[in-house]
Amino acid sequence: MAVIAGWRTPFERSGTLLENLTAVELGGIAVKELVARANLSGSEIDELIYGTVIPSVSRPNIAREVVFEAALPKSIPASSVIMACASSNRAITDAAERIALGLADVVVAGGAESLSDVPVLFSREFARRLMRLSRAKNASQKAKALSGFRPGELSPNPPAIAEFTTGLSMGESAEKMAKENGISREAQDEFALASHRKAAAGWDNGILPPEVVPVPVPPKFEQMATTDNNIRRDSSLEQLAKLPPVFDKKFGSVTAGNSSPLTDGASAILLMSEERAKADGRRILAFIRSWAYSGVDPGEQLLQGPAYAAPIALDRAGLKLSDIGRVEMHEAFAAQVLSNLQAFASEKFAREKLGRQSALGEIDPAILNLYGGSIAIGHPFGATGARLVTTLSNELVRSGVQFGLLTVCAAGALGHAMVLERGE
Ligand SMILES: CC(C)(COP(=O)(O)OP(=O)(O)OC[C@H]1O[C@@H](n2cnc3c(N)ncnc32)[C@H](O)[C@@H]1OP(=O)(O)O)[C@@H](O)C(=O)NCCC(=O)NCCS
C-alpha cells in the first residue's frame, strides 16, 4: 500500500478562523485540494473513507457528504469511521486493507473535525416530549404532550470530552497519568515549549507550508487561513510555569500550555496499490509496512495506548525500535507523551503489561516530532492521524531515512501505531 500524497487545511483554534465551516465543509476542502493537487481524476477513485469524532446530526456519514462537497463523482462509495482521535488512522488502515484485499486500487482517506460546531442536544426528557408533540394528532394530544413541562428540561447537553465509563475527562486522565508515572510539571512544560519551537521552525524552514492548503475564511472570504494559529512563538518556560493547572486545580500539573488545544481542521491522503501507482508513473512517498491497534481498561492509564500498539506494529513489520529513524507521536498532552515514552523504555512495563522480556527501548528526542506536534499545531480530533501520516511520509523522503513510526492515543483507552517505509 503506497502513500502518494497528503494535504490538510491549516489547523485553527476552535472559535477562530474556521469557526463558520462545518467538519463536512472542511473535509470537502481538504479532499478537493488533494484530488486537484495530486492530478487525480475523480473517476479514478474507487472509494473514500473518512473519519470524524463528533459527527453532524444532520449529515452523519461524513465520508459521503465529503464526496458531494468536493464535487466528486457520486458513484464513489464512501463510509465514515469513528475511533476517537485515531479516526483518520482507522480510515487510512481501512483503505489499506481494501487495497491489500484487491478490492480497491485508489482510495482517498482522512478526517475532519470542527470543535467550533458541536451538536448541542436537548435533554432526553425534552427530546421525548418533542417526539410526542410531533406525533400528536389533535389539540388535546398536543396539550398532553406539553403537560408537566419544566424549564429545566431545556438545559443544553453539549458533548463531553470525557469517558462515559469513568466520567473522567481526557485532561483528568492525563493528570492521573502524570501523577502515577511521576511526570513533573517542569518536564511537561519543557516538552510543550519544544513542540511550539519545532512547529515554528517547521513553518519558517518551509517544511510544513507545502503540506497545508490555504482556506478562504467565510462569511466574507476576504481573509485566508494559511497557517496553524495555535503556534506560540513567544512562549517561554517562565510563562508556561505561571499557568494554573486546569483539571486538578489544587494538586495538578496539566495546564492550557501543556495540553493540545480544541481545534478545527481537516486532512486527506491518497493511497494506491503499489502496482497501480507504478503503472501510473506516480511518485510513492511511503509504503505502509504494518499497523496495530490496542485497547486497555479506561480505568487504568487512558492514554497509554501507543505503548501497547507500537511493539505489535514493529513485530508485524519485522523491525526493532532501533531500526526506526523518525517518530511522530500525537501529543494529546505532554504528560501523555512523556508517560508513553517512559513505558516504551520500561522493563517493568514490558514484563507486567505486555508480557515481554525486554522493553521496546528509548526514543531519541532528536528523531521525535521534528516539526512539533498536536500541542503546538493543534488537534482537530478526526484529522490528526492523517496529518501524522503525511508529515512522516514527507519526512522520510526528505531525510532519506528508511523507516518511521507513528503513534496515536485515543479516548476509550485505545491506541494506534503504524510503520512506514520510505518509497523513494
Ligand atoms: C486545556 C484547555 C481546557 C485550555 O483551554 P483554554 O482555557 O481555552 O486555553 P487558552 O488558550 O485560553 O489558554 C489559557 C491561558 O493560557 C495561556 N497559554 C496557553 N498556552 C500557552 C503557552 N504555550 N505559552 C504561554 N501561555 C499560554 C493563554 O494565553 C491563556 O492566557 P490568558 O488566560 O491570560 O488569556 C483546552 O485547550 C482543552 O480542553 N484541551 C484538551 C483537549 C482535549 O481533551 N483533547 C483530547 C485529547 S485526546
In what range is the share of β-strand residues? 15-25%
Main beta-sheet annotation: 10 strands, mixed
| Helix and strand composition category | alpha+beta
Assign an overall shape.
globular
| Tally of DSSP helical segments | 14
Helix percentage range: 25-40%
Please mark out the parts with pLDDT under 50 across 5 or more consecutive residues, or reply none.
none
Number of strands: 12
What is the H/E order? EEHEHEHEHHHHEEHEHEHEHHHHEE
On the 0 to 100 scale, the average pLDDT is 96
Distance between the termini: 14 Å
Question: What is the CA-atom radius of gyration, in angstroms?
Answer: 22 Å
Which cofactors or ions or other ligands sit in this model?
Answer: coenzyme A
